[in-house]
Amino acid sequence: MNTTSERKIISTPNAPKAIGPYAQAIRYGDLLFVSGMIPIDPKTGELLTGNFEAEVTLVLENLKAVVEASGMSLKNVLKASVFLKDLGLFGKFNEIYGRYFGDILPARETVQVARLPKDASIEISVICGALP
User: Fold this and answer.
1) Is 89 in a helix, a strand, or coil?
2) CA distance 23 to 64
3) What is d(CA 22, CA 44) in angstroms, rounded to the nearest whole number?
């Protein structure tokens, strides 16, 4: 099995550049592994803060941009990993998340963390699979 021919880096200017030595996403065969996204505006490179609903929406839009750059859509999301600085915002998060994934229902975990890169309030990563 030649794994290097199956492994492809996915990158789009419609999502923030990686802030470290990693790719926005890796496509491996029929699977897509999207790195954690925090609420960074891809046009300015600035972290959005102060409005949790806008932050969640920006993260989900950034994830959507990377997934679509791979040729998939949010309907391909199999699993989401969500990291929140304040689990007290779980209800607000779920409301916005539901607008993007309400009918899809990927597997998910949501955990409260002490700190995220750039002191962001939220980070989300996803794993997608090509639909038959």
Assistant:
1) helix
2) 15
3) 20
**How many C-beta neighbours within 10 Å does residue 2 have?**
6
More confident residue, 129 or 102: 129
Q: Report how many helices (DSSP H) and strands (DSSP E) the chain contains, helices first.
A: 3, 6
Domains of the chain, with CATH numbers? Answer: 3-129 (3.30.1330.40)
**Residues pairing with 10 in the sheet:** 25
Instruction: Give the model confidence (pLDDT) of 66-79 as tens digits.
Output: 999 999 999 999 99
Which amino acid, one-letter code, is at 73?
Answer: S
List, for residues 88-97, the tens digit of each pLDDT value.
999 999 999 9
Nearest to 77 by CA among 130, 124, 24, 25: 130
